[in-house]
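Suppose a classmate hands you a notebook page containing two proteins, each written out with its sequence and a corresponding row of structure tokens. How would you begin to make sense of it? This section walks through that situation. The first entry is reproduced here exactly as it would appear on such a page.
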Amino acid sequence: MTLAELKHSTANPEPPALAAALVALWWEAKGDWGRAHTLIMDEKGADCAWVHAYLHRREGDLANARYWYGEAGRPLPSESLAAEWNSIAAALLDNPMGLK
């Protein structure tokens, strides 16, 4: 799946079969932050921590975001939220583990 295909799929009522980190990004792109956060909050691994960090940055909770960026081994980004969403999604889509 490409980044463009992932974005286009948000017109559908349900996400494509992807790893939890990408599905959480998908729900956030549809405007359902709560569902995205519920999905990701108990997941393990750096990819999920990265998405969790992004979600808290989106929420405006920078202290919590900093914690999760640390768990992901990533610095707090200076790019826009939209650019970060694209960066995360592209990186996860390039990872064979991102696909179910």
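The notebook's second entry, a different protein, reads as follows.
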Amino acid sequence: MPRLAGLEPDARLTARLSTALADHHEPIECTDIGQFWDVVMTRPVDGSVIDIYHPAHPVSLSDLQRRRCRVPPLAIVVYAAVHNRELDLFELGRLKVEGVISTGTTDQPPETRRAVAEALCAANALGVTNALVGELHPLGLECLRWAAERTQDSPSVEHLAEALVLTSAGLALELLKRQLPSPARFIFWGRLFRAASLLSDADRRTEDVAFRLNYSLASALTRTLRRGTGCSLREPRRRGTTAYVLDGFLRRQVRNRARGRQ
């Protein structure tokens, strides 16, 4: 299960958060800001849930920005009373904080679980595109990031084009001009990268990942991974599924196209 470092001063809210996430995530409760940053910087955690208005240990936006730059793939979810703090909400968006849950309004268990899941998707997408900077055109990076963030919503080419303020035909043409993969291929690879992230958890069953990503059978997911990586699922799971998918994407969608231009 994804590991989440948490810093919440209110025992009632901590219990509420734990109830919403207990069966889906492994919480790591931190008692103070020093322990929280130590856990985030030194232990294998997937995300963090933090009250930036902690009465004893408030977290400034500038400190949050510094941590954002140092650990960019880490999902950050602000779980706090943000009512009447619209300027802070704007700043959190500018810092690309992946999720904001307003206590008392949007912290019902289903909404909390969805917000955290979306934050983990966004952080995973950021980690993937960071690894491809310099290898892939910025338009390609944006398409891949968008697709990897929205795998659970069954994204379409039309949705991707709309997000980039283009028509489907216009997006296809822009990608073709730059000799990039088609919009459908970016959606395919976004789904593969998300599957790789989920499968990196050794305790997670392939069947559960397949169902979560709207595959009808586990075998359909394993066939898709074989097409992308060129090998069976067993070896990637042993050595790192995301690395295998990244290598497959570079070989099949980036470097082969580059050689074709020569």
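A careful reader of the second entry would note: Strands lie at 3-7, 26-29, 47-50, 75-80, 99-102.
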